[in-house]
Amino acid sequence: MSRHRLGFAVKVLGAGGIPSHDTRRWQSGPHLRVSLDRLDEILSYLERNAITMYRMSSSLAPYATHPDLPEFHHQVDECRDRLAEVGARARSLGVRLSAHPSQYVVLNSESEDVRAAAVRDLELHAALFDAMELDREAVVVLHVGSGGTGAADRFLRGFELLPDAARARLVIENDDRVFSLTDVLDVSRRSGLPVVWDILHHHCHDPAGIPDRDALELALATWPAEVKPKIHYSSPKTAVERRKRRRGRRVETQYVLPPLRAHADLIDPIAFRQFVAHTAAGLDFDIMLEAKAKDLALLRLREQLS
DNA sequence: CGATGTCAAGGAATC
DNA sequence: GATTCCTTGACATCG
Description:
This protein has helices at residues 32-48, 75-78, 80-93, 112-131, 151-160, 164-169, 181-191, 199-204, 212-220, 269-279, 294-305, and strands spanning 6-9, 53-56, 96-99, 140-143, 170-173, 195-198, 230-233, 240-246, 250-256, 286-289. The chain is α/β, with parallel strands linked by helices. The protein has an eight-stranded parallel beta sheet. The protein has a two-stranded antiparallel ribbon with strand order 8-9. α1 (32-48) links the parallel β1 (6-9) and β2 (53-56). α1 (32-48) packs parallel to α3 (80-93). The structure holds a DNA duplex.
């Protein structure tokens, strides 16, 4: 059994599946109030299964930052009491919550409109977490963004646009093609932002060839002493089996290789045990599992480790 | 009811 | 310069 807190992202597949947020389209008036009821149900599920870390949907307040739908803007105010209630429940269960805005939130975009949208989104996430009265361990994870010349500088300028509340929640993650750990550490040094190390991304994109143990230590060192660091852990997807029907009866099996960065359904328990026992020896941090089978992958891994 | 199209959104790769 | 892919599920619509 790992002494690290283990979490999963967004969707609950167990218990017949629990929706992560109000997914109705804007015409049907989706609302944060509904999403919070879902989140409350998910907290019950986490309690039943002794799961203590969870990444919330980044669409809890549907369309709240949409530029053309200003009437959706006040969902946080409309749900103040409920947010405090659900936040208190998460705290009492000892559940560490986080969020990870989508690929469309690009703080270093060359487009002013896109940057402004990113600021709105990060402000919203901070407002939600603050209204839930979550502590500093509840972070908002973001990739640095697009590449090209001056990409890091653009990020720093985007960061300057953020109000303090949003800055205080923000952490940055290495991605699989543009911002390697080295690049993200540089942005961290210049901004003071902590780094979430994603091991699979690191294995996809690491031009400096930093060994895992070094990479892990470098990332953990960017966190303030009073906040427990966290990382992202996943296993690469293996080949996909395809059966091809050939003139009537004959069936031929082929193997299609997925992209290197694709997440497997489950976590490879052998690699994970090795990681915890050796790479992570003596280090204290939480682990967000990213597997297609979500909570089922977490439960399976825990079973395999016990 | 099952199949198919669509969704708010960016950026990189490819053509 | 324009199109496709990435990756993603579920709502919405249509047959």
